[in-house]
Amino acid sequence: MKAVVIKESSKVVIQDFEKQSLGTGDILVKMHACGICGSDLEKVFGQYGKPSMKLGHEPSGIILEGGAEVENLKKGDRVFVHHHVPCYSCHYCLHGNETMCEKYYETNLSPCGLAEEFIVSKWNVEHGGVIKIPDSMSFEEAAMIEPLACCIRAWNKIFFQKNDSVAIFGVGATGMMHVMLAKTKQASKIFCFDINDFRLEFA
Description:
Layout: E1 2-8, E2 11-16, E3 27-34, H1 38-45, E4 59-66, E5 78-81, H2 91-94, H3 102-106, E6 109-110, E7 117-120, H4 122-126, E8 130-132, H5 139-142, H6 145-156, E9 165-169, H7 173-184, E10 189-193, H8 197-202
Parallel strand pairs: 9-10
Antiparallel strand pairs: 1-2, 3-4, 3-7, 4-5, 5-8, 6-7
Helix pairs in contact: 6-7
């Protein structure tokens, strides 16, 4: 199967990976769309990317195959897939800080989300890491579920009330989602700040 990896700073390549065997609780997904996250761009163009690093963690696609123990998911299902899934029972999870969970960082997609096909592990499958999407939702829209969820999580951590004013610093893709959420939550005024004039005009 083919996947996108970093070759060197500012350069990526499509690389062939040996197809791994499917576990009894795993599923195999054919990727149809995958978001390019800011963290992916940082890996490619920034400081902490390393050669052979795999990219992509916001994929959607169609299930090609499921292990014998997989329930409620079947071949042909259209799905969005989470790359990290927490344990939901540790100190961090119980206090609403799932991204600090040790299990969260242990889980991932194989080889990665930006791949021709990828395997979703049994843990992710059994703990809500695979979401069926309706036919009315495009794969491109589904690929935005994870970044939108990050924005919603941020809103859930602030004490916002209807008619409050909101300041949004940076109106790239994530910032624009915050603008839309601010409108949905009926903010009285929305202030957008950015050093990019195009983004400000678009917002």
